[in-house]
Amino acid sequence: MLKTKNVAYWYDKKEHKLFDNVNLEFKEGKLYAIIGSSGSGKTTFLSLLGGLDKPRAGTIEFQGVPLSKIGLTNYRNHDVSMVFQSYNLFPYMSALENILTAMAITKAEHVHDKDYVFEVLEKIGINKEMAKKKVGRLSGGQQQRVAIARTMCCDAKLVVADEPTGNLDEQNTFEVLDLFKAVAHEQNKCVIIVTHESMVAQRCDQQIELKNNEFLIK
Amino acid sequence: MNFFYRAFLNVKGKKGRTILLILVLSAILLFVLAGIIIQNAATTAVNNAKKSSGATVTLSANRSNAFKKLRQQKSKNPTLSLASVSVKTAKKIGNSDYVKAYNITNSTSVNAKSFDAIKTSSSSQSNQMSGPGGKSSSSSSSQGDISLSGVTSTSQVSSFTSGTSKIKSGRGINASDAGTNNVVIETELAKQNSISVGDTITVKDTDKNIHKFKVVGIYKSSSTSSQTGGMGQTDPSNTIYSSYALVNSIKGTTSAESVTYTISNPSKAAAFITAAKKSINTSKLSLTKDDSTYRSLLTPLNNVKSFAQKIVILVSVAGTIILTLIVVLMIRERRYEIGVLLSLGEKRWKVIAQFFAEMVMIMVVSIAVAGAGGKFVGDAVGKQLVNQTTTTTSTTTNTTTGNSQNGQPGGGGAQMANNGGGGQQQSTQASSQQLQKLSTSISVVSLVQLGAFGLAIILLAILIGSIGILRLQPKKILIS
């Protein structure tokens, strides 16, 4: 589904590469974990997969088409959904409005279908009453669930998440991971999580470690 | 139109910020509206001035040509020969569509017989004011002591229209007085000789013929000018108004000295002159335009209009700068939100459109607030402007009036002197009245204009403030 071909990235000087010659393949229906120490470049790699940036060398292909051909804005709009450590929700909107807005932007199949959104939210433990509250009034765990529900309601086949459990306690961490698993297995989506917690990585289908500028499949 | 819905949610969700923006935008629009309504009021007043003030065109002898001919005469004692206007021609021209009204004027001098003329100490004649019933010492003079001013209607004489002269009892002369011996005399002359409305007075013309006049009205002249007119009379109270036909019968002529046409639209004065020239011999007669009233109104109104225009421009520029700074700050504060939208694949122009839509929603409320307050600000600023401009105009006009006390160029006799003196006063008075009428009301047009200005201000502010959005990289915002 998603392939990296000889991908390399550096910031200022070509000699100081974060990673080089990366050839990885990510398949739908699986939950991946990219682990590595802080500053190793795993978040930068995720931003390349999410279409937030372009690799300095090599190509990334989605369903066999290079992202440069799809166009990054188009790719982000239709093919990928992102979840971040700080949830990335619009604070002035309710959970329901947040999801409906994202669905409208990405032109999801169930756009404007409130019942569908309530149903998805209900599945991940957010009831109607909570769904109508401004997201700022929800707990961190609840906000992250809303962010995951947003990826579930949008039709993107690829979900990338940067430290999605970074702000959560242990119980919420496991619950959120279960939700990601459900997204991957039940919705047949490809979910890629970046984390520095080995405990989180161990619960994923496959672990990829970024160490000494190289990706190692575990 | 998803950005529109997001804009609505943002405006609704961030109430505090929305209220602050409404207040800022209302303040800006309030002053823009004040400028617009003053500007519109000034434009309306200029248009009204065009209609109400009118211009006059005087048909009289072509003096410059007459003087040219005088200089060409080879005789030892050359005489100036001034043509007169045939009443028939005057009436024919007066039937033009451009003409609102016309006044045929004629004058002659007669000597008081059954009463005494008023004499002033500056008179060249030695005797002072004669007592009632006494014989005038100047009765034998070739120049009479009474100026008989023939008109179509006293209501069209400039001293009456300006308020310098007013009918105190009886009535003025009008068109129906043609063919009668009805006259209107000055109140001081009437008091001096115990004459009242309905009395008959007698005068002697220069050919020593006696004429009986019936007094139908008494007017009061507030003119202080006592300069000697061409006929030798010494005081404005010695002016008697009659029908021009009566003067003609005394003079034994069928023509007039001059005819003043009041043009309904000052801008058509030139067209009227062109048309009227076809009916006259331009080497003998000339047509002189006088639109000083209109022009004296135009200057202060144009000043008000120009000042209002400056208010609109200044406030718009200042408003755009203020709003741009606010938008820049707002965008900096909402960088994260922009990053999220871009990460969802939202197009940058739609993000900018969302901010624009938010400001438009705020503007709609602000226009209502400004509309409610604009009338008061417009009234206050307009009043201040009018007061200032009227004072300036009065000062300027008084100076001009002082300079033109000796009558209009080309005019001769007491009546012309009156016309000359009254013309500027009339202008000032009309100007002042027109300015006081400056109506600063809010119309739909002014609100639409305000909306257009508001949209332009917002558009500029958003475009300038959004330059940063075009440079924003979602990765930098979200990952950092």
TrEMBL record, chain B:
Q: Which residues form the ABC3 transporter permease C-terminal domain?
A: 311-474
GO terms, molecular function: transmembrane transporter activity
Top-rank taxon:
Bacteria
Show the ranges annotated as biased composition (Low complexity). 121-165, 391-407
State one Pfam family annotation. FtsX
Q: Which InterPro entries match?
A: ABC3_permease_C (IPR003838), Macrolide_Exporter_MacB (IPR050250)
User: Gly residues bias located where?
Assistant: 408-424
**Chief location of this protein?**
membrane
Going by the UniProt record, its keywords in alphabetical order are: Cell membrane, Membrane, Transmembrane, Transmembrane helix
Places the protein is found: Cell membrane
**Where is the chain membrane-spanning?**
311-331, 351-373, 447-470
Membrane topology summary: Multi-pass membrane protein
Note down the stretches annotated as region Disordered.
121-177, 391-430
| GO CC terms in record | plasma membrane
This protein's name: ABC superfamily ATP binding cassette transporter, membrane protein
